[in-house]
Amino acid sequence: MGVVAWLKSLFILQLLIGFVFVVSGLILNFTQLCTCVLWPINKQLYRKINTRLAYSLWSQLVMLLECWSGTECTLYTEQATVDKFGKEHVIIILNHNYEIDFLCGWTMCERYGVLGSSKVLAKRELLKVPLIGWTWYFLEIVFCTRKWEEDRETVFSGLNRLRDYPEYMWFLLYCEGTRFTEKKHQISMQVAESKGLPKLKYHLLPRTKGFTTTLQCLKGTVKAVYDVTLNFKDKQNPTLLGIVNGKKYKADLSIRRFPVEEIPDDEKECAAWLHKLYQEKDALQEHYEKEGCFPGPTIKPKRRIWTLLNFLCWATLLLSPLINFAWDVFVSGSPLLIIGFMIFLIVASVAVRRLIGVTEVKKTGSSYGNTEAKKEN
């Protein structure tokens, strides 16, 4: 193990990075709360400010992926498609197989200037998660329970509210509804067989309602749908904990652009279009399994320095008083102060670990396969 790798593995350094993220996140959340007074006065100004506040938080995670971990992202797509990145409102369809698939998406958002304005159709449980859910709330993220009868009004109103969003946004959809596991895949293919649909090998059957509704509500605003299929070299199974430990991964993303004019307006035809898309995504994954790459030309977008500069600014602001305080505590020799500070470190480490746990596959529960879940399709 080299010196740099050893330093990245040190728990104290990881804890300090987590401290910066959590404390800066709380400061940013409080600032977002204060901006709410702008909503009735100037809604677009509120949105522009919150876009930049969100960037200041999310870019710290992108910094972990790009600078701390050194993970590389390669795009398999045409230059004409890349030329449109960050210049139009789009819907992103991404396969949901990995713990860090959202982070690979975010690094692309950052490189093309839409990280702060990126959106997602998220499960309501995430609204209760500090920093993540709170930031999304101020960004007008659409939360749902995955029960259409309960979600209908909320989803329609939330999506329609985004039609005049001033910043170019990438709206992420996990059409499979939940992260891929073998058990969920077996259940999903039973549903496919019962409905006479072709079976998928690497994906779950897409839930079409979220896609057709999003496209219907945002048509006229959204110009295209980007189909993104993500995989990792050498059959790597990346985790956020691995990123925190400085482990390097190599991500490959196949990206195809579909203008909204090419997608049927009729709900049933649109659903059929989505099913066909997932059959094509499955074929792309099959090609990757055999060849170790996706078909087509490759592009490696350049990293930007802003994520690192943003983190260094927060680290300078927050770590200097923390280190001075820690020094004063230990120099004082007071057992009470030292014990109190150690308890603070333990609580901080547990909080950071809990946030990481939100992304872990084995801890992401789902009702997939239940009678209620099946009704949603």
UniProtKB/TrEMBL annotation:
Give the transmembrane ranges. 12-39, 308-327, 333-352
CDD domains in the cross-refs: LPLAT_LCLAT1-like (cd07990)
Q: Extract the InterPro entries matched here.
A: Acyltransf_C (IPR032098), Plipid/glycerol_acylTrfase (IPR002123)
Q: Which GO terms describe its molecular function?
A: 1-acylglycerol-3-phosphate O-acyltransferase activity
* UniProt keyword list: Acyltransferase, Lipid biosynthesis, Lipid metabolism, Membrane, Phospholipid biosynthesis, Phospholipid metabolism, Transferase, Transmembrane, Transmembrane helix
Coiled-coil positions: none
Mind listing the GO biological process terms from this record? phospholipid biosynthetic process
GO CC annotation terms, alphabetical: endoplasmic reticulum
- List residues of the Phospholipid/glycerol acyltransferase domain: 90-212
Report the family membership: Belongs to the 1-acyl-sn-glycerol-3-phosphate acyltransferase family.
Q: What is this protein called?
A: 1-acyl-sn-glycerol-3-phosphate acyltransferase gamma-like
Q: Which organism is it from?
A: Sinocyclocheilus rhinocerous
Gene giving rise to this polypeptide = LOC107718280
